Amino acid sequence: VAAQNCRKRKLNAILNLEEDVCNLQTQKESLKKEHSQHSRSISRMKQKLNNLYRDIFSRLRDDEGRPVNPCQYVIHCSSKGSVFIIPKHSLKSEQKQDNEKE
User: Looking at CB atoms within 10 Å, which of 38, 39, 65, 84 has the fewest?
Assistant: First the structure.
């Protein structure tokens, strides 16, 4: 009787583990689909942001009416909602100063 009970417990443990594996495989597939959807969504957002960035720079002009070069400037949004066009070299020096402060 003790051996029978032991075999029964072992069989139940195996069945529970197989059920857990099946549930985890289902969860893994669900997470893969979700990850794929998020990746596509991020790609679409990046593309929209890139299009917006190009559109903004195509409309910007300097003081003399020449187009602003997107290779030399970046769009910077402050935490207060203000938007600035900043030279890239100035942004890098700001980041260095922030890193040195930290």
Answer: 65
pLDDT tens, 32-75? Answer: 999 999 999 999 999 999 999 899 888 988 888 888 888 888 88
CB 86 within 8 A of CB 76: yes
Question: Taking the mean position of all CA atoms in its chain, how far away is CA 87?
Answer: 26
**Contact residues for 97 (Cβ-Cβ < 8 A; gap 6+):** none
Q: Give residue limits of the domains in the chain.
A: 1-59, 66-101
Statement: the pTM of the whole predicted model exceeds 0.70: no
Among 76, 102, 74, smallest CA distance to 88 is for 74
